[in-house]
Amino acid sequence: MSLERSLRIAIAIPKEDAETTFSTYYKAFAHMGAELVAVDKDDDPKLFDGLLLPGGGDVNPKLYGQENTQSEGINDSLDDLQFSVLDNFYKADKPILGICRGHQVINVYLGGNLIQHLDTSKNHLPKPKQGDLVHLVVADKGSIHHRLYGKEFSVNSYHHQGIDSLGQGLKATLYSKDDNVVEACEYPEKKLYTVQYHPERICFERARPDAVDGQKIIGYFLDVCQASRK
Predict the structure, then answer these.
(1) pLDDT of 82-106, one tens digit each?
(2) Which residues contact 127 (CB under 8 A, 6 or more apart)?
(3) Residue 100 a catalytic site member
(4) Radius of gyration of the chain (CA)
(5) Is the pTM of this model over 0.90?
(6) Which of 135, 145, 183, 200 is catalytic?
(7) Which residue from 54, 95, 99, 208 puts its CA 20 to 30 A from 107's CA?
(8) Annotated active-site residue in 103, 124, 159, 198
(9) What is the structure's pLDDT at 127?
């Protein structure tokens, strides 16, 4: 990826958490010539080249019409921030990448819903202090992941929920091999991309031999941001 100048990518998080809780994102994107900037609900999307929705706790199930049965770590103020920022950037036709929670936020925003606790969560959520799990995934032919990584490969995993019904316009393109959980979606016409895994934790100094290089998918997103500059 060749950048003419540093890209400014909005990240929808509380500003006080910017370079502490989310430092891994900041480091990975900085390695690739992109500056992450924490944004508020009223920040103008025109000032940025794209939007990142990162990982975190579960989305409040009331936002997809369900009672809370097994959702954890709900933060209504974070939901409000991220759904508002997402709405602004989506309507401004800016490139958007959702990672883990962000993958689920985008799906709910587009009218989809979630499985509040996967029956096979042991395949996706590690035990405390264990670190990310790794599992095989299968990519649809012609998808972005298929072009970047091939048909079958391994990614990291740290989640207990998953996509149930897809939001409008989203196409699921990557699935866990053992239990068919949706691991990535695309909506190319809207420059919208989501991944359930954590590419920022499998690249550069955090690269691991048992998983793919996460900088490829981050780089793809940044290339879209670069090409979308007006």
Answers:
(1) 999 999 999 999 999 999 999 999 9
(2) none
(3) yes
(4) 16
(5) yes
(6) 200
(7) 208
(8) 198
(9) 80
